[in-house]
Specification:
By secondary structure, the chain is α/β, with parallel strands linked by helices. It has 10 helices and 8 strands. Helix 8 links the parallel strand 6 and strand 7. The protein is globular, with a radius of gyration of 21 Å.
């Protein structure tokens, strides 16, 4: 994931860690020994999981100033099943900024997308160019693939250039089956995450689920249309700097049924997704410049 930091300011250094090399408590201890050579004045834990709890505790014992993200897990739990009536939770970006503020750094959440000049992609991009990322980590966040294929076909037949994003052999096989005139699968063809992000920066828009592709496209300055089902924007995980009108969702009393979309649907067939029509997605895409 180091490629996510490809266009950082000169005063930011990224150290990539392969966790397979630091397995178990002994591995975490070795990781701490490696990290502490940085002689840091502050440590900001932006994850708050068992691994980072261990590391930050070791830094505290050393006397290092440590601040930790407040995820608000109780608030998230209260949101489940009450999305229509619950107040929106604080966006995660604001929670990150609060960690640095606790360490004495006043931050304005003001972000400018990077100007990408150092990454080559193996595609010619013709406008309007639209990215579509139909997958997510959990089924509750995935728009039915038969309906998404209709979205792809409608946009491609309208004269838009469509790039399909995914990962892994199974996703690659499915997206290659969707290829046709104006439709290209990018899986395994870009060269890496940095090149994928470069391609995203050249798109007119990205259509995605509540997924990492949504966030990456938004951070590259691309208009993002996001489709939400089992999860809910009120949980604080919306794409950076995108208007509410770019979110497609059906108001249902049972939403969200989980924060991350990992719980099975009590109604069996995710009507929160099935009731979103391909036309709803395509119409919004056309509002943002698609043919």
């Amino acid at each position: 994931m180091v490629d996510l930091f490809s266009w950082m300011p000169a005063n930011v250094t990224v150290i990539g860690v392969n966790l397979h090399d630091y397995h178990g408590i002994s591995g975490l201890n070795r990781l701490f020994q490696d990290l502490k050579t940085g002689n840091y004045d502050f440590v900001a834990d932006l994850h708050d999981v068992l691994r980072t709890k261990y590391l930050r505790t070791r830094f505290r014992i050393m006397g290092t100033n440590v601040a930790v993200i407040r995820k608000g897990r109780a608030d998230r739990k209260a949101l489940i099943g009450h999305g229509l009536n619950h107040e929106p939770l604080k966006p995660v970006t604001e929670k990150y900024a609060a960690v640095f503020k606790e360490l004495g750094m006043e931050l304005e959440i003001n972000y400018a997308p990077p100007v990408v000049t150092d990454a080559e992609i193996p595609f010619e991009v013709h406008q309007p160019a639209i990215g579509i990322a139909p997958f997510a980590a959990h089924q509750g966040k995935v728009y039915p693939l038969d309906l998404m294929q209709k979205v792809v076909d409608m946009l491609a037949d309208g004269g838009n250039q469509v790039f399909l994003f995914g990962a892994g052999r199974e996703e690659a096989s499915l997206l290659e089956a969707w290829e046709k005139t104006n439709v290209t699968s990018t899986v395994g063809k870009c060269g890496g995450l940095k090149q994928e992000m470069c391609l995203m920066s050249r798109l007119q828009m990205m259509i995605s689920m509540d997924s990492s592709n949504m966030h990456m496209a938004a951070l590259m300055g691309t208009r993002t249309i996001s489709v939400w089902g089992a999860t809910h924007p009120k949980a604080g995980f919306t794409a950076w700097n995108q208007p509410d009108e770019s979110i497609i969702q059906i108001p249902m009393d049972c939403r969200p049924c989980s924060i991350y979309g990992s719980k099975p649907c009590k109604k069996g067939n995710y009507p929160c997704m099935r009731e979103i029509t391909p036309e709803m997605i395509v119409d919004l895409a056309r509002k943002y410049g698609a043919k």
